[in-house]
Amino acid sequence: MSFKVNNMSNASKFMLKEDFKRHFYIYDIEESQELVILFDEEKEYNNEIQRRLSSLRLNPLKHLRQLKCRIFVDNESFEPIILGSIFRGQNYVKVEEFNLRTKKGRGIGTLILDCLVEVLRNMEIERLDAPLSTVDYKKRKSYITFILRRIVFN
Fold first, then answer.
1. Can you give the pLDDT of all 154 residues of the chain as single tens digits?
2. Which contacts qualify for 27-30: CB closer than 8 Å, 24 or more apart?
3. Are the C-beta atoms of 6 and 32 separated by less than 8 Å?
4. 66 and 84 Cβ atoms separated by less than 8 Å
5. Alpha-carbon gap, residue 31 to 105, rounded angstroms
6. In angstroms, rounded to a whole number, what is the distance separating the alpha carbons of residues 89 and 58?
7. CA–CA separation, 83 vs 151, rounded Å?
8. Fewest beta carbons less than 10 Å away: which of 18, 67, 88, 107?
9. Please, how many CA atoms are within 13 Å of residue 20, restricted to the half-sphere of its CB?
């Protein structure tokens, strides 16, 4: 029970940068454990903000955005997935790395991917590129089946 309280407390205190929008997800997992998933989406500047930045002689144009993920589980916090930059006009993002450390086999990766797909849909991203690592090559058929059943963007 103390992990559950600590995970929530740590997640609520985690700093949100000024130009980011937070997506907050909470799930109950095994043995009264709680998983907190945060996705911080860098905002695009609207026209008013771009004019204000120009008047301050700051570069108003954002050519790319970031999407960051952090999880809180078992009284730990880490970034399990690293995504590439989302460039202006681009409708896809690439998974650079996905590493759950010792948190495998508990459904955490599935929950992270479900949340990621929801966030990407809200950002109007149509495609997720996720190359298979050499470590996971032997399990490729089960991963392909999972992706086809779970992560459909259309």
1. 455 667 767 777 777 777 888 999 999 887 667 899 999 998 876 556 656 666 776 665 667 788 999 999 988 999 999 999 888 778 888 889 888 888 888 889 889 988 998 999 898 888 888 777 666 667 767 666 656 555 555 5
2. 27/111, 29/73, 29/106, 29/107, 29/108, 29/111, 30/106
3. no
4. no
5. 14
6. 22
7. 16
8. 18
9. 15
**Token pair for 81:** 């997935």
Domain ranges of the chain: 2-150
> What's the CATH code, domain 2-150?
3.40.630
Distance of alpha carbon 80 from alpha carbon 68, whole angstroms = 10
Q: Are 129 and 93 in contact (CB under 8 A)?
A: yes
In order, the DSSP letters of the chain are: -HHHHHHHHHHHHS---TTEEEEEEEEEETTTEEEEEEEEEEPPP-HHHHHHHHHTT------EE-EEEEEEETTEEE--EEE--EETT--EEEEEEE--TT-TTSSHHHHHHHHHHHHHHHTT--EEE-PPPGGGGGGHHHHHHHHHHH----
Whether the pTM exceeds 0.85: the reply is no
